[in-house]
Amino acid sequence: MGDLTMYRYDSYDQAIVDARVEEFRDQTQRRLAGQLTEDQFKPLRLMNGLYLQLHAYMLRVAIPYGTLSAAQMRVLGGIARKYDKGYGHFTTRQNLQYNWIKLSDAPDILAELAKVEMHAIQTSGNCIRNISSDQYAGVDAAEVADPRPWAELLRQWSTFHPEFTYLPRKFKIAVIAADEDRSAMRLHDIGLKLVSRDGVIGAEVYAGGGMGRTPMVAPLIRDFVTEDEIVAYLEACLRVYNRYGRRDNKYKARIKILVHEIGVEEYRRQVEEEFAHMRQQGLNPPVEELARIRAFFAPPAYETGLSDKIDRADPAFALWVDRNVAAHKAAGYAIVNISLKPQGGIPGDASAEQMELVADLADRYSLGEIRVTHAQNLVLPHVRKADLPAVWQALEEAGLAEANLDLITDIIACPGLDYCALANARAIPVAQKIAARFADPQRQRDLGELKLKISGCINACGHHHAGHIGILGVDRKGVENYQLLLGGSGAQDASLGQITGPGFSEDGVVEAIEKVTDIYLEQRQDGERFLDTYRRIGMKPFKEAIYG
Amino acid sequence: MKILTGNDLQSGDVIWWAGDGWSRLVAEAVDVGERGDDLARTEEAALRVVGAYVIDGTLTEEGPRPAHIKDRIRALGPTIRPDLTLKPADADIGKWVI
Predict the structure, then answer these.
(1) Which portions of this protein are annotated as coiled-coil regions (chain A) (predicted)?
(2) What is the ipTM of this complex?
(3) Which of A27, A104, A474, A513 is the most buried (most CB within 10 A)?
(4) Could you say which architecture CATH assigns to the domain A139-296?
């Protein structure tokens, strides 16, 4: 994996993961031999990310804070080809899911993952899940610090944390370090935003956010905790939740319910009390450990003297640059977003060949590094501007150059009833129909930034609450029905969408969205995004257009 | 009719009780009447199936049809990947109304 600027396992990390693979191999063999019942085995397989879904076993692989090396991506592609049906699904938690896994293959897959420092540990269960972060971490000029060292520190802290292995419910943490929130930070159980105060790095701590059946935007719990005490403060936050979070009702067991029920002030008071206790126990990791981790993320040796000029002679290339390429902190470099939302495609799906191509492009043009976004896209974080035409050409040939980042066709969609045992309705066909309706690239650009998010059930894996336009699939007497929501945001202006009214059929919701966008085009003022117009004029004009 | 379904323990494939064993084709499913729960327990104990459960269905000209859309999608495969449906070469697949 070369001279990557990402964390590399030490002997402890590797030993832990290797031991876990062998443990699960033994458990699987005992299950297949009848020595374990399904009731006994189910919690064991779930601890290794192996679910039983609609069509087969599903394996959810952790991608720590959405960071992948080319070598890791190549292995993910190889697993898709060898053990699955040739593809995988990138999720809204920056993970990868395989949909067609055989139980008997699962230990071998985990062994292949372990060889490239990957696993599926804590991708299920009532524990601290994969830490999520900003896909532009380390390359955004606006961030106060690189959030990845903290994300990695929290990964290590939370892995097999004995006190937090059986929390009242699952627990999701996001770490960002820029004012622009690309991680839906305030819709996590805990969100950390690194900030600088008088030259000292620390974090704002938000707690009690989440989606699901009771969506909440996390309130600010503490406006500054210094970097050396972040772990102890989180430990205090978790400890209060672990002690008082409800275990009598799984629908009321998330931290957001606790914070809401006892109030922000009381939750904060209890955390501060616990934090004061923690400080005396010296539970913070040694400063040297953070320094050791941070050293892995030292900026790469960027070439100097590179030109910032981009040859925009090809109109299609220029449109892609304008839409999918973002500013990089280093002169002469750019951040490339690879849309996994092609027309007719499945949001977040990538074939083995596409994964391998992205791995090759990362090796050749992006210092061997790739990021996964919560919007189910990929990122090449370090591309020389002079290489953009070659990258675009290669992506174009593989059907990966859709120039639609953050446009109406860049739709987040959960697997829905096509794959998921929990879903009430399909999400992917709705996404495809909307994408087809708005297929005209000029029309998409005219509409501008418009984040559309679809969930196939109330669990909200498709982030429908946070969509400028959100869609929630429900089961109405055995028939799929779709509720429409407007006005949500997962960004720095986080808000929750409001339901427009009665639901629609699959075709009906596409019609309704067209009416909604027509109202926006009629009513928008200069420079307004869809969300801005909605916030200014409110729900009423949209409802009138939809329901007459 | 009552249909017994579940997943093959080892492969995870969706399977249907066909009277003398399991089939991957819902078309071969039989009415298990009131025996579904007993069959499920026996077959799970024999390590042939996991997550077995009984569903309602109707017998149509094309064969047994699960009552709920979730099981119809289980029977066919993901509706957005026709290349992965159970019988992609079968022209009649296209007539299946989810």
Answers:
(1) none
(2) 0.93
(3) A513
(4) 2-Layer Sandwich (3.30)
